[in-house]
Amino acid sequence: MTPDLIASGHWLPFVFAALLGLSMLVYAVLDGYDLGVGMLSGRVQGADRDRMIAAIGPFWDANETWLILGAGLLLVAFPAAHGIVLGQLYLPIAIMLIALIFRGVAFDFRKKAPPPQQAWWDRAFQWGSLVTALAQGWMLGRFIMGFAEDWAAWVFAAGFALVAVCGYLLMGATWLLIKTDGELQQRAIRWTRQALWSLVAAALATTLWAIASDPRIAERLLRFPEVALLVALPLTGLSFAAIVHLLCGILPLPGDRLSWLPFAISVLIVASGFAGLIYSFYPDIIPGRMTIVEAAAAPSSLWIILVGTLFVLPFLIGYTAYAYWVFRGKARDLSYE
To answer: Quick one: which of 165, 163, 160 has its CA closest to 210?
Structure first.
């Protein structure tokens, strides 16, 4: 990169696009697994449910910081795109925030409320997690289709909402493989296989639907050499899925060896799918409507924002890493003291 190019700041929009994508990917992984655990909590009762919630207790609120970072970067670095996105997604964003509020309140009230009300708060926690996942998948589906208003775009958004739910369930189930043991870990193995193949089916169906219904996506992905990537990514995802399925057949191993591997591979599955999505509409920041450069703030503003971001990001990464190190190992009995 030449000094003139550095001074001009023409590269800054792409740096912020990368930071925005990274924050959304990290959020999808970290908050994805705790939303998945929240949805799965409705399948058990009593002590098992408490142990599942203890598995995400030290992490879930901090995980959502990455969503705030992503929204903040979109607002300050790409204000033109932020206005379009908020205008198009006002209602699902409101629904998501309400669900997150119910979920957060239910986390504390489920044990502090009078016994007759505790079951209600348990359901609020479960349904808050589900509605959040559906809203996020719906919003991403609408975004991918460039906020088109035809019926095919609405069908795709609904399908992508199911993709998000299945992906979060997979992340949650594989997280429980790491944090639990005994019968609950055996249940997590079964949940992992169910979520895994549900995700594969939903992802393949929505991909084919997008190619068939959106000429822009079809033109981008069906030409050479892009078509090679279109084939390679699903094959890679299927290979990862097969490995996770086989691992579930041999887990748990003595000493709980390899219990972390299904979660790690699930992260790769999510990351490969995320990379495919970005490639399908790059260099647009809003597919078919606005490019990264067109949406970016002035270079002078981006320089100031970059300094602030580079100051905050190490603290966020450091705090996240420290929290996961302190609370490593199996989940302990849940306590609200």
So the answer is: 160
The tens digit of pLDDT for each residue in 34-75 reads: 999 999 998 888 888 888 988 888 887 778 888 888 888 888
DSSP single-letter state for residue 296: P
Cα gap 154→148, rounded to integer Å: 8
Express each pLDDT in 94-118 by its tens digit: 999 999 988 888 888 877 777 777 8
The topology under which CATH files domain 11-326 is Formate dehydrogenase/DMSO reductase fold (1.20.1630)
* Domain boundaries along the sequence of the chain: 11-326
Q: Which of 301, 308, 304, 316 is nearest to 80 (CA)?
A: 301
126-142 burial string, b = 16+ CB within 10 Å, else e?
bbbbbbbbbbbbbbbbb
Q: Give CA–CA dist 174/286, Å, rounded.
A: 32
Is residue 100 within 8 A of residue 71, CB to CB? The reply is no
**Shortest CA distance to 207 belongs to which of 269, 131, 286, 145?**
145
